[in-house]
């Protein structure tokens, strides 16, 4: 897996590397383009694994976890502490899960509000920790915990469906893990894609490629890092206005076409020194055209978009870029869904867009509605691509 260069703040963190053996102590550094978005360090023995994860989006949050392991690699207890350090609305949280063969006892203290419950444990249920907060939930899954799970499953499994117990809530979702080869395991990501885990001969994870998921991150194994010290640097960056903030902020584009206002709402991902077309935005696949929730267009009057009549209403917008350079704008009647939930059966129209190339790369994904007289256009721009389509009010 090609790993993009780490930013300077990570290079400073390398000063805290330990000389401990990799099979007992290790770390994972996760990047999104040029930016380090999460770092995990853990210490592992036959009966216990304990780790720290610092997440930078939307602000610095420090998570500490511990798992007690039985002799066969099952889990008897998990403990998780979530501590917000930066400017974030994430609540402080302490969660303990106690596992028996047939039950799970759940103790959650969230910002001083404590709840206790218990429920049946499904066969094969195993705890996992997926972090990231708000719209960035799913940004990073603990690779230390994945490594323990893979060891527990053994080398013989091909494909297994696991009741995955969220260490932060106690809730269970079904997830699939597929062993493609002795050194490649795929971890299900919300049933829409896989994170590709590369293992070495001893079964340790050496890298994780989430480029096919909505998060587009890459992770690599390093020597042990003192995460608490790195977290202090990230907090200082937050306070200096140099933190990462929300990964894809919500934006509103408004424009008048004739005497009517048209509104587009979308989330704006950042380029982060990545090549966009053909990678982040794949060719030949319908793209969510932004991030997070589906991009929406609101029109109180009937329109013509690219010469195609569109009745007044609310629509989700999608795009289909092709390797030959052409792009289609897809106008879909379904709205209010997440940006991964495209359903072609609700398509109202597909219209061609005009394609141009910018002189210099643009870091922020943008959309705009511009008008002049009775006509106007919808403009989509990111990196060096510019896509436009004419709009008129009927």
Detailed description of the structure:
This protein has helices at 8-13, 143-153, 227-239; strands at 25-32, 35-44, 48-55, 61-69, 75-84, 93-99, 103-110, 113-120, 126-128, 130-131, 140-141, 159-166, 172-181, 184-189, 193-199, 205-209, 218-222, 250-257, 260-267, 296-299, 303-305, 308-310, 313-321, 327-332, 347-372, 375-393. The protein is mainly β and 394 residues long. The strands form three sheets. It has a 15-stranded mixed β-sheet, with helices on both faces. It has a nine-stranded antiparallel β-sheet with strand order 18-19-20-23-24-25-26-21-22, with no helix packed on it. It has two domains: 8-239, no CATH class; 250-393, no CATH class. 35% of the residues are buried. The radius of gyration is 23 Å and the shape is elongated.
Question: Topology, please?
Answer:
Blueprint lengths: L7 H6 L11 E8 L2 E10 L3 E8 L5 E9 L5 E10 L8 E7 L3 E8 L2 E8 L5 E3 L1 E2 L8 E2 L1 H11 L5 E8 L5 E10 L2 E6 L3 E7 L5 E5 L8 E5 L4 H13 L10 E8 L2 E8 L28 E4 L3 E3 L2 E3 L2 E9 L5 E6 L14 E26 L2 E19 L1
- Sheet-strand content, in percent, reads over 45%
Shape: elongated
Number of domains: 2
Percent range for helical residues?
Answer: under 10%
How many helices? Answer: 3
Give the low-confidence spans.
1-22
